[in-house]
TrEMBL record:
UniProt keyword Membrane, yes or no: no
Record domain Jacalin-type lectin: where: 10-154, 184-334
InterPro entries documented for this protein: Jacalin-like_lectin_dom (IPR001229), Jacalin-like_lectin_dom_plant (IPR033734), Jacalin-like_lectin_dom_sf (IPR036404)
PANTHER family linked: JACALIN-RELATED LECTIN 11-RELATED, JACALIN-RELATED LECTIN 3
Name of the protein: Jacalin-type lectin domain-containing protein
Gene3D superfamilies: Jacalin-like lectin domain (2.100.10.30)
The UniProt record lists the keyword Chaperone: no
Source species of the chain: Erythranthe guttata
SUPFAM superfamilies linked to this entry: Mannose-binding lectins
Family: Belongs to the jacalin lectin family.
Length: 335
């Protein structure tokens, strides 16, 4: 059975909606679990607030509590906890700013789904959390809920070695090899796996540079190219994957002199109106190293994906591409 204790450290995902504007950001990160979510809504989500497990007092209101309807989500904390969130966003004409607002929300727990709450639109987002739970929220609101993101914590897995110490180095190595074999060796690819031409850069010693072409008009990744370090310490560029039609070029340089290396990639994929025959493409990418993160680059809308499930080092990429970057996966050297 999986140990449900949360590991140290939080990961922030999102936000979805409008991340710009004059409205202030706010955080809600209770020490206990979240037992109640209260949403005021009408044509859009007007406001949201929370009640912490072990307390009867609601949090401050994020937004304006003037919605025509009130929805209350009760979570049977601590046995029930949040594991995902999805929703929709739209350009609300009565906001007078031309910015996005959240118009629908759904919450998934380890037991059931709550929602959807609100009318919804065609511009959806989704975040499922596998192997962890949502422990807080990052929000921006004025008259309406403009943006929302989540703080998540992965679950720690109980270690059998901690209960049964092993002194024999050969037996220790055998258990390490068994643990490695329990994890998938090549996570992904994620995205439009049935479209585009498949490619695989192979496995190297490390990733040195990344060049990413972001096509802003379509909110999608045009192409991607990697420079790797070989086992004999040579640097080699692999072919570009996708089509270079201009747009913004993002360059990432992994600093080996500071013992930096890639540990994972996350992002969003989904269809974009008017391009690629409605097939899924990579819409946003964030690269994570042992020193920090690069990104997000692109439009954080669609279906969320992440390769960060265990400790390891990214040593290569694979995927598919055509006119756009259709899918992306990683080769990982596990520790």
């Amino acid at each position: 059975m999986e140990n449900q204790d949360s590991c140290e450290g939080e990961i922030f995902v999102g936000p979805w909606g409008c991340s710009e504007g004059n409205n202030k950001w706010g955080d809600y990160k209770p020490k206990g679990g979240i037992k109640t979510i209260i949403i005021s809504y009408g044509d859009v989500i007007n406001s949201i607030r929370f009640v912490e497990h072990g307390s009867n007092e609601a949090s401050p209101i994020f937004g304006d509590d003037v919605g025509r309807k009130i929805a209350t989500i009760n979570i049977e904390c601590p046995s029930e906890y949040l594991t995902g969130m999805s929703g929709c966003q739209s350009l609300y004409p009565f906001d007078y700013t031309g910015r996005w607002v959240i118009d629908s929300l759904s919450f998934q727990t380890n037991v059931r789904k709550h929602g959807p709450i609100g009318p919804g639109s065609n511009f959806s987002f989704s975040f499922p959390m596998n192997g962890g739970k949502i422990v807080g929220f990052h929000l921006r609101a004025g008259n309406y809920l403009n943006a929302i993101g989540v703080y998540v914590k992965p679950f720690c897995r109980a270690s059998s070695c901690a209960l049964n110490p092993i002194d024999d180095p050969v037996e220790i190595q055998e258990q390490i090899d068994a643990i490695k074999d329990a994890f998938p060796r090549d996570p992904g690819p994620w995205g439009g796996i049935s479209s585009g031409k498949k490619w695989d850069d192979g496995v190297f010693s490390a990733v040195k540079q990344i060049q990413l072409h972001v096509y802003e008009r379509a909110n999608a990744m045009n192409s991607i190219q990697f420079e790797y370090v070989t086992r004999d310490r040579r640097r080699v560029w692999m072919p570009r994957h996708g089509f270079n039609r201009g747009g913004i070029v993002k360059k990432i340089d992994i600093d080996e002199c500071k013992n930096e290396y890639l540990i994972g990639v996350a992002g969003f994929y989904g269809p974009v109106d008017g391009i690629n025959n409605g097939l899924d493409v990579i819409r946003s990418i964030t690269f994570y190293s042992n020193k920090g993160k690069y990104g997000p680059f692109g439009d954080e809308n669609g279906t969320y994906f992440s390769s960060i499930s265990s400790r390891g080092k990214v040593v290569g990429f694979h995927g598919s591409s055509g006119s756009y970057l259709n899918s992306l996966g990683v080769h990982v050297e596990y520790f």
